[in-house]
Structures are given as structure tokens and as C-alpha cells.
Amino acid sequence: MKKVLTVLLALTLILGVFSGCGGESGSDKNEVNVYNWGEYIDMSLLDEFEEETGIKVNYNTYENNEQMYSVLKQGGVSYDVVIPSDYMVARMIDEDMLEPLAFENVTNFVFIEDSLKNMAYDPDNTYSIPYMWGTVGIIYDPNVVGEVTSWSALFDPANTGKTLMFDNSRDAFGIALKYLGYSLNTTNETELNEAYELLEQQKPILQGYVMDQIFDKLESGEAAIGPYYAGDYFLMLENNPDLKFCIPTEGTNVFVDAMCVLKGAENKENAEKFINFMSRADVSRRNSEFIGYTSPNSEAKELLDVDEYQLSVMYPSDELLANCEAFANLPQATLDWYSDAWARLKS
After folding, report:
1. For residue 66, how far is the Cα from the chain centroid?
2. Labelling 1: which of 137, 192, 252, 292 has CA 20 to 30 A away?
3. pLDDT tens digit string along 22-39?
4. Quick one: 104 exposed, middle or buried, by C-beta within 10 A (0-12, 13-18, 19+)?
5. Contact 67, 306 (CB under 8 A)
6. What gap in Å lies between CA 194 and CA 176, rounded to an integer?
7. Of the options 3.40.190.10, 1.20.1530.20, 3.60.10.10, 3.30.450.20, the CATH number for the domain spanning 135-253+320-346
8. In which band, very low, low, confident or very high, does the pLDDT at 209 lie, cut at 50, 70 and 90?
């Protein structure tokens, strides 16, 4: 989702503070401050939005939901638009971190697929508009690790030193839970402890825990297998045509990333104009083609200029999706368990 090197991320955040995304940024009503996953937008669309509206876009990036949440909780940096994943949207709603949207300013909402409206994370679509959706799967080089159909390949000692794992707790534990036959959203500590034990057993075979570093490692052949987001697979494929992608037979995470306006945003109307622009069929189609993720716009699919293989990855069959789950916001006790367990696992 989303790729950007950690060093560049840090530099972007630092520059953002001095370029109008912090402190008194809201004093300029002719701007909008956007906080998004790295490499998760066609940057030319920002220029187009500025030309159409005269609104300047101050744009910064993050690596994952937890990092974004931590930055916002720490305060000191002001944003208007943020694009969390489903479960994080629910958490931010619960914690009163988001503004209700004025839908008279987001008229393109009518073109969002009905199946992506009124979802559990925001039942009345009061606070969010889907941005993109997709699946998590395994990206691998069959010349090195053979054909892969199961999460078991990430725990196979035969792949020692060639295997990468997500460097965030929700995705890593989610993979272990699905492999064990449990729900991504279990709160049963017996099941969670089994997942912890599995991840602990996996550690010796790993080359490392990664997020955006997975691109260089898989594209260069330094590593041969790792989990990541379907949309980013096509970026890797451009540089390494040997790579393949699969949704494991045990099922996986299907996610929706949604555009939201942060509580107290000083440029709320501009934020809603930006969200409406990104939801337009032609814009969403171009964005989808560029980043490889699946547009939620019902008209965009018909406009896509991609081959049949890419279309099949972007729009998995109902049979594949039947075993998939979306992450839900978890009770605080379970979130605390995750934090403690992840710290122990990484120590």
C-alpha cells in the first residue's frame, strides 16, 4: 500500500512540518493537508486537482495504520484528509477523531459500489468514503520456492533466509490466525497465543520483518517470498517478471481504505472537495491503474485499461473472496494484548 522508503518517509514528514502541514497551516484557507500511505496515489492527480480548484495540496505519507494513528495522537502536525484502513476508521470513530462528512460536497459518493457502502466500520457512511480496496496475498518467485498456494510457505524451514514477514502486528498475526484456521478478529487469548507461538517459531527462518523494504528485496531477488498487498504486486512485477501472486487457500484479509476528514480540520470544505475529486470515475480509474489497487467506483472498472490477468487480481472471484475477512476494530484489552505480544516478539 503503499510503498515508500522509511528514510524518505521521515524526510517527508520533516519537510511537511516546514512546508505548511503543521502549526499554522490551517490559516491558509486555499489549501488542503492530505496524509496518505506512501506511493498510494498518482501524483499527477494532485496537480490536476490544484489546477481545477485553485486549492494547494500539502501531501505527506505514512507506512501503516498504526504509525499514522500514533502520529495523529502525538499531535503537533495538522492534517485535513487521512486515508486509514477499515478497522482503523472504526477505531478513530470510536475515539472521536473524525468529522462527519457534508455529503452535499461529496456528490460522487453515489457512484461508490453498493457492496462497499454501509460497511461495519462505518455503518451509515457518516465519516468515510472508500478510496481503494484490495487483498493481502503472497508474492513469491516460483523458481526459488516453487509454486505457492498456502500460508504454510511462510513458515516452511525450506525457505529459511528467503522469507519476509510484515512488520506490523495486525497483518502478521492475521496471517498466523488464518493459517491456524481462526478469525482475523478473534479475541480468544488461547487462539491469539497459538498465533504468537507460530510467529515465534517462524523468526529463525526469516530474513527480516519489512514493510516498504519488501519492494527492493523481492524485485532484486535478495528475498524470494513474502506477504504483501495485491496492488503493489504489479509494481514489483514491472521490475521482476518472475514474481507471482496468490491468495492462500486458507483465506486472507480483504480491506477497504477510506478517505476521512480529521476532527477539527481547518480546511474541511477543501477536504471534502478533494475527497469528491478522488471519487470521480475518471480520476478513480486513472488512480487505480497507476497504483494497482481496486477502485470502489462502480463506473471505473469499465474504463480500466489493464490486461485480463491484472483484472483477475484486482477483482478476485467470489470463490476466493468467500474465505476472506475484513479487519474489525478490537476491544481495548485485545489491542493491549497485541501491543505487548508484538513488543515481545520483536525483542
Report:
1. 11
2. 192
3. 333 344 579 999 999 988
4. exposed
5. no
6. 9
7. 3.40.190.10
8. very high
* Topology match between the domains 6-133+256-310 and 135-253+320-346: yes
Give the span between the Cα atoms of 98 and 228, in whole angstroms.
Answer: 28
Take residue 115 and report the three cell numbers written for it: 457492496
Residues 44-69: tens digit of each pLDDT: 999 999 999 999 999 999 988 999 99
Q: DSSP 3-state assignment of 56?
A: strand
* CA distance to 62, 66, 211, 217, 326, per residue, from 6 (Å): 9, 14, 9, 14, 26
Q: What is the mean pLDDT of the segment spanning 167-171? A: 93
Class of the domain covering 6-133+256-310: alpha beta
Rounded-to-integer distance, Cα 123 and Cα 120, Å: 5
In this prediction, residue 28 carries a pLDDT of: 53
CA 36, CA 32: separation in Å to the nearest integer? 13
User: How far does the chain reach from its first CA to its final CA, in angstroms?
Assistant: 26
Q: Taking 80 as the threshold, does the pLDDT of residue 13 lie above it?
A: no
- 1 exposed, middle or buried (CB, 10 Å; 0-12, 13-18, 19+)? buried
List the chain domain ranges: 6-133+256-310, 135-253+320-346
Q: Which of 215, 264, 262, 269 is nearest to 243 (CA)?
A: 215
Contact 173, 195 (CB under 8 A): yes
Residues 83/262, Cβ–Cβ less than 8 Å: no
* Residue carrying C-alpha cell 487462539: 191
- Kindly tell me the burial class for residue 154, based on how many C-beta atoms sit within 10 Å of its own C-beta (0-12, 13-18, 19 or more): buried
**pLDDT at position 241 over 80:** yes
The grid coordinates of residue 181 equal 484456521
